TrEMBL record:
SUPFAM superfamilies assigned: Homeodomain-like, Tetracyclin repressor-like, C-terminal domain
Organism (species): Lentzea pudingi
DNA-binding region positions on the chain: 31-50
UniProt KW DNA-binding keyword: yes
Domain of life: Bacteria
Alphabetical keyword list: DNA-binding, Repressor, Transcription, Transcription regulation
Gene3D superfamilies per UniProt: Tetracycline Repressor, domain 2
The protein's name in its UniProt record: TetR family transcriptional regulator
Residue ranges occupied by any HTH tetR-type domain in the UniProt entry: 8-68
Length: 214
């Protein structure tokens, strides 16, 4: 049997390849053989660590989340003022660069499949709960220090920012000409900048010709 350190490394390698295949081919088109080929192992090796395809994909989603948070741990632990940390969060999550774009595509696949899968809904709920708590903690720090003057529940403010990042990133990934990475950056950073005023987070007037769905 492989040493524990080797097993952990091999398992992480398989999960990274699974995320890569999900991003490239989609959740429903994922084949264990493709994962094995990308990881440079046999299909039997994949099944040694993950008995079923669902076990493999669930673990891959969790791996993607943990890697995403770990890559940004320096932001969360930074001594920079809360508003600066929120700006860094925005910059870090813009869908540019191969690694970040791949992660966004994996999340998009999770969201689509979770609509029909209670099991994936539970995964999404747990991951989103943890991510929301992380962002809310930055808002909470900012309100306590006076860096953020926007009133309201830090969790609600975190929901505003997280939903903004998610929604705009999906538009960028979908190739929207109106929503480029630069436009997304400008929009999200403008929201962060408004947090230093007392009326941030309050609904503003909606233009008569504002686009919508429905």
């Amino acid at each position: 049997m492989p040493r524990p350190s080797v097993e952990a490394e091999r398992k992480a390698q398989i999960l990274a390849s699974t995320c890569k295949v999900i991003a490239a081919e989609g959740f429903r088109h994922l084949r264990v053989s493709d994962v094995a080929k990308d990881a440079g192992v046999s299909g039997g090796t994949v099944h040694y660590y993950f008995e079923t395809k669902r076990e493999l994909t669930d673990a891959a989603f969790e791996h993607c989340f943990k890697v995403s948070v770990t890559r940004r741990r320096w932001i969360l632990e930074s001594d920079e003022p809360p508003l600066s940390r929120l700006r860094m969060v925005v910059e870090s999550y813009l869908p540019e660069g191969a690694e970040t774009v791949e992660a966004w595509k994996v999340w998009a696949e999770l969201w689509v499949e979770a609509i029909r899968s209670p099991e994936l809904q539970e995964l999404n709920e747990r991951f989103y709960g943890e991510w929301r708590d992380i962002v809310a903690s930055i808002f909470r720090d900012g309100q306590a220090s006076g860096d953020i003057l926007a009133p309201g529940d830090p969790v609600e403010l975190a929901n505003m920012m997280v939903s903004m990042l998610d929604g705009l990133a999906l538009q960028v990934l979908a190739g929207s000409k109106a929503m480029t990475v630069d436009t997304m950056r400008t929009t999200c950073l403008r929201f962060v900048d408004q947090l230093s005023t007392a009326n941030a987070g309050q609904p503003g007037p909606v233009a008569a010709n504002a686009p919508g769905i429905g």
